[in-house]
Amino acid sequence: MSGKERLLVRGAQGDLLRLVATGHAESRAQLARISGLAASSVSLRVEELIDTGLLVEEGSGTSRGGRRPRRLRVSPTAGLLAVADLGAHHARLGLLDLSGAPLVVEERACDIALGPEATLDWMAASFDELMLTHGPPGVPLRGVGTGIPGPVDPASGRVVSPSRMPGWHNFPVAEHLGAHYDLPVLVENDANLLAVGEARSWPGCDNLMVLKAGSGIGCGVIVDGRLHRGRGAAGDISHVRVRTDSSTMCSCGHPDCLEAYASGAALMGALSELGIATRRPGDVVALVEDGVPEATALVRNAGRLIGEVLTVLVNFLNPDAIVVGGSLSTAEPLISSIRAAVYERCLPLATRDLEIAVTRGGPDAALLGAGSLLLDAVLS
Amino acid sequence: MSGKERLLVRGAQGDLLRLVATGHAESRAQLARISGLAASSVSLRVEELIDTGLLVEEGSGTSRGGRRPRRLRVSPTAGLLAVADLGAHHARLGLLDLSGAPLVVEERACDIALGPEATLDWMAASFDELMLTHGPPGVPLRGVGTGIPGPVDPASGRVVSPSRMPGWHNFPVAEHLGAHYDLPVLVENDANLLAVGEARSWPGCDNLMVLKAGSGIGCGVIVDGRLHRGRGAAGDISHVRVRTDSSTMCSCGHPDCLEAYASGAALMGALSELGIATRRPGDVVALVEDGVPEATALVRNAGRLIGEVLTVLVNFLNPDAIVVGGSLSTAEPLISSIRAAVYERCLPLATRDLEIAVTRGGPDAALLGAGSLLLDAVLS
DNA sequence: CGGTTTGTCTTCGATTTCGAAGGAAGATGG
DNA sequence: CCATCTTCCTTCGAAATCGAAGACAAACCG
Q1: Fewest beta carbons within 10 Å, which of A103, B66, B286, B320?
Q2: Are B312 and A308 inside 8 Å of each other by CB?
Q3: Does residue A281 fall inside a structural domain?
Q4: pLDDT (tens digit, 9 = 90+) per residue, B284-333?
Q5: A235 and A264 co-located in one domain
Q6: Whether residues B231 and B343 fall in one domain
Q7: Is the CB of B40 under 7 A from strand C?
Q8: Which nucleotides of strand D come closer than 7 angstroms to any CB of the protein?
């Protein structure tokens, strides 16, 4: 299940491979421009990477006015990454090649309430199955990564006081997965993975806030093109106090947290009090699309509250874009009321070129983000 | 007053010089460790820098168990930086050597309400005077920088819609100063400079929020050890909506901005309504120290409001420390009520190792910050 | 269609950087 | 006080990197 010889790419070679893998460059000339190395050095290194079997030349790219570049790609046989995005009741699982491109992605039902051991063992078994059924023979697994719907301490790879994951507190996820695989293991908060994944779809935007609005409210922050972790829990906005008429206690012990009003779980709760049953946050979106006024009003209020919180952060961080993802993101009134609140209340300087939009990266964005981070760990 | 030949330090040499100048290293061995270069390469480069007259060897450092290192310093004759921190009624002006150490610092009265031309020409004249009276003969000026008590667009060096600087809107400060000096010119928001300056006093803290509580409320943000500018106005918290009973209109046209309740100007206004006259934010601190209950109550309320805003940002950014500076920072009740609000309401994960403290960098911190940023511009 | 322009990639000598080895200078410890 | 250790710095051959020059390939354009 492992024990393959470690990928050996040191220094400059690793950097070049990474640039190709992440899609930042796909020709020698581009590599030279981006890496700052001389064209001749790049050619030498690329030669070696091709000899090692990590890179392949594949046709030619589009001309920029002169000779067409020879397109470079990470070899499909160089290795695979197994990645997962764990949700409360479903997980997306996939295999990526070393360029981060998905080979297979599947969504499977699971239940994190069964506890970490059961869930992670199930995940590992699913990875093994995917490797057997979809992995080309002889192509080694190079890394394993998963997103977790709760706070993760990046240093230790442990889950730290999650709200909706009974039995997971302080569980060493990375260590447990590492016991199955003698490989680099990545464990990261799901919103952070989404942020990293989305960042690829927002070229030129170095500062990004990616909101994940599902059962809970998560947020990943990209500063200067890199994921900002702070001391580990950066990006948390769910326990911010909001301005409301009524007063509701949040599970964290404080009154009037954003999560208690604007999360998918809160919306479902409010609907059920009105006698409208829902099973998943997606059902709320369906109600909105069906024109159920109670649902629309609740979603619109959620958007306003989220927007008011974002107001503070937009003034403070001056991001290039706010990206809204998660299962609630397809509800039109949510986005538009977030937009309204932010544009109305923020400084003109901060909103002048600010874009507020839904996810561009598609349903696999978080998996791609996991691939992206995992690649850094894999390439020496 | 200029036209000196440009400092010529390319690539690796500039990096080494910068490391010595910023105090990150003071021996060849240390340079090798920090820069990642081979010890032999470091020796070569340092040799050249000494030959050029930019570095000097000066005695020996303390042993770490073996031979004592030969201490390196930036030559005092390598050049000077002229820096200023402009306030509403006072400016601090100083000359720094290329290591960022102050040669002279003076505080002089001025009035930014006289408009940009008058103020900047006065500043240039003051710089010239300082050079004449305190600059060692023959030592060239290498750069000029100033802090501005309002938003600055870093790309163009213009002031953008400042609240308390009549006549400055859109004025090209960097360009105007650049006409006097054919040198690198730095123009930056004052809170940002304070943040950069303070960062030197907080080793190990890569993520820092530095609050400047004076007439206005400014905030500089250090992320990953570097100043975060966003699109230019990052760090603004003064126009965040706060939770209050009453309702006050802010000059920005929105109700209940933090600035309208918690800035020095707002406190002075509130005191005058109570029949207590003050001329400067510092007077408010004096009243608090004299035990005037109205002043204490107002300051405490300001601290609470600021703290509540910080709550959001602390959860979001997970900084290592919050540093409070500015003329109000010496009011004990301000800090303690900020502390109370943040510690009470933030996530344990975010506050576990969070320090909330007053400035460590002393009164010249902003000038030192200007020197630090200016150095980057000066060293090619 | 053939010259011109633009961009890509390789060749090769010059330069820079590295790394191992060794000398210098002080700390440590009997 | 002398042997030994640690750290600092330099020396010198080996390796990596650079940059200029040129070959190559396509787009552009009268």
Answers
A1: B66
A2: no
A3: yes
A4: 999 999 999 999 999 999 999 999 999 999 999 999 999 999 999 999 99
A5: yes
A6: yes
A7: yes
A8: 5-13, 16-21, 24-28
